[in-house]
Structure formats: C-alpha cells, structure tokens
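SAMPLE LOG
Freezer: B-3
Tube label: C17
Construct: single chain, 915 aa
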Amino acid sequence: MATNVKRCLYIGLGGTGMKSILHTKKMFIDTYGEVPPMIGFIGIDTDRDEYKGTLKLKNGEEMSLSPSEQLKILVEEPQDIYWVNKERFSWVPDRNLSGLTYMTNGAGQLRSNGRFAFTVNYVNIRKKVEDVLNSITNARIIDNDKYQLLNTATEIHMVFSLSGGTGSGTFLNMAYLIKELAPKCKITGYAVLPGVFKAMSRSGMANVSANTYGAIKDLDYLMHMGIGKEPFKLEYLRDSENYDIKIRPFNSFIFIDNKNENLDAYTNISDLAEMISLALVTASGELSTASASVSDNIEKYIDAGEMDIENKKAWASGMGICEIVYDGNTLSKIYGIKASKNIIERLLNSCVDTDLIVNSWIDSAEVNIRENNGSDNVIDYLWNKIPKYDLNVSDYGNPKPEVDINLNSNVVDSQKINAKVSALTSKVRTELRKLIIKHTNTECGVSTAKNILDGIRAQVDIFMGEMQSEKEEFLEKEPAYIAQVETAIQDLRTADGKFFKKKSTLDALADDLAEAVKTLAQCRIEIARRNAAIAVFNDVLAAVAEAKANIVLIENSLKAVYEELTKDLAALTNNVGRASQTFQIDLSKDVAGSISVDASKIQIEDFVKNLHHDGKVYSFSGLSHAEIKADILGYAEKLRPAKEFRNTTIDDIIDGLSEDKFNRIIEIAISKSKPLFRYSYKGYTPNTTPRDSFYIGVPDKVVSRLYKDDYFKKRLEGAMDVDFSNTGVTDKIIFYRQLGVVPPYTLVSIRDYEDEHLQCRFNNFFDQNLERRFLREDFSINPKRASEDDLLEFWVKGFIFGLIRNTDDGYEFKSKELGKALRDYWMPLSKYRDEAFDQFKRYKNTVRNEYQDIIDKKAKEMGDEAMRKLIERVKETYFKDFSQLNMTVSELEKKGFEKVGELMEAELQYVDKEL
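STRUCTURE (predicted):
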C-alpha cells in the first residue's frame, strides 16, 4: 500500500536551520528507509566548510546532508563589494558597516551581514531553490508505487534562529524569493528564540536578544502588509532582481522558545532541532491533513482577525509535539540477532561423543583403514603379504640367478600399488567430506565436525605410528634376511661341490634357501606395503587437515559474526528509547531488554534446510562474514516470534496496558507536547483567546483507545479542540499541539529583547530603509489604543467601498455581524457626521475585523491595476464624489459645524497621506 506524502521543501538557514533539517532527513530515512522523491532539503550557511553534522540512523549507520543539499553563501572582501556598489546597498545600516567583514566563517551575529551574503549570492541561491523545486515537483513522481501524493501544491518549511546573523538575516529575503518562484506554495516559518542559546552559553551572546527583537519587528511590519499599503522594495545587485513587497512573507509562522508554560526548560539546541524535525516530518504526512493542513489553520486564524488586539495583527503561533512509538521492527531485529546468536552457539557447542562416529567411519566398508588391534585393512588392501612365486632351485651348483629371478618376480609393482593408493585416498577423501558435511549440518555441528576430525587424526597417527614402527622393524631385519639367503646359497653350492654329496642333503639345503628367499621377499613386500600405507595415511592426514582448516575457518567466521551480532545487539538495545528521548515515548524500551529466545523453537535441521549452498553450513568456509551473517539473520528474522514482533502494532501495545500505566503515558505525552511558546496580553483584553488545538494521529481512530468514549478529550483541561486523523502508520501515535494566533508583542520575553536592542551598538534591523519607514509611520510592536485615527481608515474606506452611506434618515453602516437581514444588515447612525463617527467607533472591534476582510476581498476581485486607479481617483475627488457630505466648504466653516469640519479635514488628510 502506497504511503501518502506531501510535496515539501525543507530549508534550513544558518546553523540552527542546518541542524534541524539534518534531524528531519534522519527521521525520513528511519521511517521510510529513504528520503521520498517528493521531499527536498536545502541548507544554507555562511561557513566556508561543508556542514559536517552527522547523526546515527536506527540501523547504526551515520548519515549527513549531502553536498547537493547544501549551499555556502560566502563573501570574500565584502567592504570592496559594498563601496563599488554602494547605491545598491542603501539598506545596509550605517552602524553596521564596521562589522561588514569576511563572511567565510559565519555572519558575525549581524543580521545585515546575513542579508549581504544572501544578496551577493542571490543568483546561486535562486538557482538552487529552482533546481530543488523542479526535482520534487517532477511529474514522474506520481508514477511511484511506493508513495502517493497528498497534494499538488508544494509546502515550504523554513527553519532558522532569530538570534544570529545568517538565519535571522536571510529568512525574509528567502521567503520573498520563494513567493516569487512559487506563488502558490505555502510557506511556514519556524523561528527559534534566543532562550536556548543563552542557556547553552554565557559568553558570545551579546546580540542574540537584540537581533531577535529586530527580526520580530521587521516581520511584524511585513505581516501587516496588504492592500492599500505602499510596497516596500527589496534591493539586490541588479534592478531585474529587485522585488516589491506587497504581501506578507509567510502563510503561517511558529515561534519556538526553550520553555513551555510550566517553565520546563530545554537547554540544548539539539533538543529543539529534534522537536522541530518531528513537526516537519509530521507536516508531510497524513496528520497534516486533519481538519485541513495545520499550517492552513494558522493562516485561517490570521486572516480571520478574531484574535487581533487593537491595531495589531495576530499572526504568531506556537506548537508542541510528542510521539508515542512502538518499534516492532527493531524488536524483531533484536529477536533475530538473539536467535542468530543461539544458532551460532549451538553450532559451536560440544554436545556429541564423537569416538563412536570416528570408529564407525574408520571401520565402515567404504573406508576400512584400520591398522591396529590386529587389523591390517590398509596394507592388505594395497598388496598381498604372501609372495606370489615360490623358489624351486634346479641348479644347486649355481642357485643365485634363480634366487635373483624369484626376488625380482616378487617385487611389489609400484605402478599398481600407487594406483591402489590413489583409489583408496580418493575414496577416503570422498567419504571424509560426506562425513564432515553431514555432521557439520547438525546440532553442535561445527564442534562435532572438529572433534571428529581430531579423532580421525588421532587414530591415523596411531596407524601411521604402527606403520612406521613395523617398517623400521622390517628394514632392520632385511640385512639379516639377505645374509641368510647368501649363507643358504653358499651352503647349497658347497654341498653340491662335494665329491660325496647326498641328494637328501642338497634338497634340504635347497628348501632352506627357498624359505630364506621367501622370508626376504616377504620382508620387502611388507616394507613396500607400509610405505604405501604411510602414503595413504599421509593423504588422510592432509585431507583431515584441509577439512580441519575449513572447520576452523567456519568456527572463526561464526565467532566473528557472533561478536558482530553482540555489538549490533548492544547498539540496537541501547538505541531503543534513545532515538528521540526528549520528545518521544518509546514503548519498545521495556520490551527490548526482556526479549528471550526459546531454543526449543529453533531447529538446526530446519535452519540448515533453508540454506541455499551445496555444502550448507560447511560452505561457510567460502563465504564472507557479511554473507554468513545475512544467511543466519535471514532465517532468524523469519521465525514466528520475529514476525510477531513486526506485526504487533502500537494499538496492540496500548490496548495491553493497565489503566494506570496508560493514563500515566498519556499524561507524559500531553506534558511533552506543551507548546514552547509563552505569551501574555500585557494588560490588553482580547476579543477571543487563541485557538489551542490537538491534532492526534492514530493508525485507525475507530479502534484507538484514545478515541473511544472521548478518552483523550476527557483528559484535557479546559476547552481544547481535538482532531483525530487516521495516519495508517501502525507504529506510532502523534500528538501535535498548536497554539495561536496572537500578536507578537505578547511574547513573554519581548521586553527583554527590546531592552537589549536599545543597548546594542549595532543596528538589529535587516534594512535601514524599512527602519526609517517605522519611524515615519510611528510603527510599533506594541498595540495602540483605538482612537479616531485608528478607525478613521475604516470610516473613509467605508464610504469608498459602499459600506457607509448618508441617507435622508442619517448615516448608516453595513455589518452582517451587527445588522439584521430584514434591513439588509444596515445599522443606523446619527444624522450628523461627527456624531455618526463617534457612534461608529463604538463598534470598533467588530468593524475593524469585518471591514478589513470585505475590503481585502473587494481589492482582490478588482486587481492591482484597478485598485491603483481607484485610489488615484479617490485622492482627486474624495470630497466631491465619495464623502457623501452634503455640505460645501463655506458651510463647513460656519459656526456650529466646527467638529464636522475637523472630521472632514482629518478624512482628507488621511486620503492624501495614508491611502
């Protein structure tokens, strides 16, 4: 079944961003075994060295961002670039010019330096983004059987710190570059606040809070951008690259502090990078579609304006995330390794008395090589010990020629006996191989085979000893036998030479000679037989040594594999529950340490049967350690307990927990998923509190213990939205908590950031031209209480867009929130304009939100060009054609109409300067 995945591009800016997307890549590989083709990464930094951060995958391998996933934006000799192109760098704050130094090892904690590096490297950055977008939107991706696209539009997730120079100085330029390249994409920003960096280090933190304040103020201004706002120009080195800002940079924006509402603190950036990565991976999957995209919901809340405070747009949000996981695959691997070790132990253990096997093989009809205890099986097989020819002497006077002929006739034929040796050794080698293969492939097989070979060698050594000893005895006797023959020849010749000789005496001496010759011939046959037997036994010993070498090789290989498996087991066992300690609850942890192997469930014969080598286990002598390991693990991981671990789901485990244990785990999950986002309205009263929502991803909510009987909802304090989504992922439950939106002035530490900003010797804004606009417009992060000026905008635009009218009965304004359908939603005001405006201001909260939506919608329908022309016309003829004030200028100047005149003056001033 295909896995549903969204098209997502993850961009990490600066060190924090790079670390976060590295964690994200790791989680994709751990989850899917690879990075899906519709997922892309870009890490951007101002560091000369390639980002060398690495993380260990679940399988123990190390991974990193590839060179193609990184882009270095270095700047050599920035001062020269600045002075040659000074007119292009009007945005660089004057106070920061002294800090404009080589950017080859970071941006020196200056935001303007980060933007400078982005500007100088703009062409390369643009090309990199285009290349990755083209890659992940390739049409062929939809043909992938492994993954199913959840969306057609691409989502961009950008991670950075607001505290340093690179990420904080480039995130706005990057957001608008993406808006230009992919207008339909949705951009979510993840911004790490300075708390974690201050917790990690007490030195080198001079600018972190000041930079954060500058970045938030920049962003706050731009998140208020919309119809009717004067565009702001982002300047680059070429006019063609300049970009007019008319819209806000992010669809949704998430702040990440290092503390939650309970003041639980995270003091290492790796913890936050890990949490962000969980959120980023979650954003690509099924859970992100619960009740529309979670980023869509933030955008919806921003657009609705219900959570705005006075004149401040609510756009800041926070999130928290936690997973409950059950890693059945890893537990299956742990069982497989333990079962593999058991198989190796049983192959290497000694559990068979091999003496009987050795003796039976030696005495078997196919081998039959015993040469002790009265058995002469080898020498008798090789050659008959009785001389073939007897000596019959006919010439008693010269018997020697006949003796020599007889001895030569009875000499062992070397060619024939060698053939017998070859036949026997070949047969013994064949039978020995059969014997060793047979026993190697049994319980205790390697040990048994080794002991058998040792037993055979011990017996053959005895046989060899007897052969050597007997041969030496015959060699010692041979000279005496030769002397006896010579003496018998001489005695016969002497007796035959006597004048008075007796035939009986001669016959007796001839018989003595014949017996002496036979004894000598027999001695020489015995020597030859033993030489041949020794050759046989030498070959047997060689064959045993070769087989022993193979068995020792197998034994050593198995021991080496056993050691590897022991290390693998330790790594896997230790890693369970540690892959993401901070924001994961791993229910595999308790199980991992208690996994045991029932040896009775593993049959060595069955293991052998499943091997695909001719010699089965004996063939291990010709395999590498990796091949042997794969063979054993391949079998072990198919055993029923291994399959049961793999097939056990998170729901199975959850359902098996006691009520107390289950409650405790859910309490921990709720606590871990508290947003790292603290806010306070600082005395202002909101119209409505920010949405606090849980998105719970479960394999199947119908059977989920969390979903049944509203269990999870009942565990929550207060009114919180809870959305369940079926993820189809059977090994985890995801708790994604989203809080927002609020205006950024509500951030708990914003005043601390501002204090450090005011004391900082550098300029913390990314564009001094934008800063001048802040001053000109009196723009502040903090809200302004409603005044005539605050609602004057909507009073004037109400006349322009037909939302306010002057009738015979007086002024009226239209509001679907306040009016009645019977009156077509028109609400009455006073006959007099100044009084009507005072009454209009009473409805400020409703009017502001409702009219802004209506005006934005009308402007969008009209288009930029038509809107521009309308504004020009209004500026020229507001008083005459739009104000609906049925009075002349001279009438306004009469006594009694001063307030109406003041109001009209204010309206005209607004039209002239602000519209």
